[in-house]
Amino acid sequence: MAEPPAPGGPTEEDWAAAVAAVRSLPAGGRVLLICHVNPDGDALGSMLGFGLGLCRLGVRQLQATFPGPPEVPEPFRALPGLDLLVPAAQAIADPDLVLCFDAASESRLGDLVDRLDRAPAIVLDHHASNTRFGGIHLVDPAAAATSVVAERLLTRLGVPLDQEIAECLYVALATDTGSFRFDMTTPAVHEMAARLLATGIRPGEISRRIFDTRPFGAIRLYGEVLSRTTLDPAAAGGHGMVWTYATQDDLARHGQRPYVLEPLIDSVRCAAEADVSCVVKQTGTREWAVSMRSKGAVDVSRVAVALGGGGHRLAAGFTGRGTAHEVAAAIRDELDTALIDPEVPGQAGV
Ligand code: AMP
Ligand code: MN
Ligand code: MN
Predict the structure, then answer these.
(1) Ligand 1 mutation pick, 36, 101, 265, 312, max ligand atoms within 8 A of CB
(2) Chain-centre distance of CA 161, in angstroms?
(3) What is the pLDDT of residues 123-161, one digit of tens each?
(4) Which ligand is nearest to the CA of 177?
(5) pLDDT tens-place string over residues 165-175
(6) What distance in Å separates the CA atoms of residue 118 and residue 318, rounded to the nearest whole number?
(7) What is the phi/psi pair of residue 291, to 5°?
(8) Is the pTM higher than 0.70?
(9) Which residue is closest in CA terms to ligand 1's atom 19?
């Protein structure tokens, strides 16, 4: 069933340009798929699901990659299509077509960004903060995940869903909707989930692997990191901020990889007394990957953009510098000037 075009989403011309770019690939044409650094379920799932779709169309010279260390987080190591992945250093230098997944800006593509100048580039994304880089924009801020855009393009290319493609797109959709809990979980999202499930994929098994399986050491680590969570009820004009941090030493002491820190934000954001929640995760000597969430009073993507990052209104991030407390102070300063939505009551009164 055709959906009306979303405001700010791809136009018919954009879709036609993307379909034409794929269809006009020469025989033996080389395709490079790129997703954002430190890939999550949507980045990997939409990229690999679409890559498998291109395989079904007969594309043989096909690589998928992402910048940074070529390490796939354990929960995603059973995704179909992983054999398409190559380390960024080995990615085709002169592809005939490039597709980017779930990256709001070129900075999220690291050194791979030079490939965009060498071939037609189709950008599949759903971030409102997308900077419109690349040539063909399939950017739909109303889409719950980049995999929604990927499924639409596959449909237009006449690729039927099979279990492998569906599993990838399902992981992406489930990740970005918080397992179908967030507001962007529209009827269309459930309809897409129904199409994916109709291929016979097992949602229980997939969810257990992606969301509910972590090493024992990670559980002990969570205890420590959560025990140092701080509540600042006066932050964000009284809407409150709750935050914690995890250092590389924390990871080392518990023998854990950085990916295990990703679910922590979902525990921290439970605090009823705060609209804004943050987890500050050390990535280098004075460098931190920051995850921010809002319950609605604050547009955290504005805060993230002001601090050099990006994201969505209710979920955003950036790279922080200094000590963890300096990063938190920078967020607090930015929150003081951030746009506060007067329609949303302060969390302290809820
Ligand atoms: P996360 O907290 O990592 O789940 O990220 C939440 C949202 O913020 C996602 O949509 C990311 O794309 C975006 N985001 C996170 N970190 C950055 C960053 N350093 N630069 C731009 N966007 C980011
Ligand atoms: Mn992502
Ligand atoms: Mn996404």
Answers:
(1) 312
(2) 22
(3) 999 998 899 999 999 999 999 999 999 999 999 999 999
(4) 3
(5) 999 999 999 99
(6) 28
(7) -105, 130
(8) yes
(9) 318
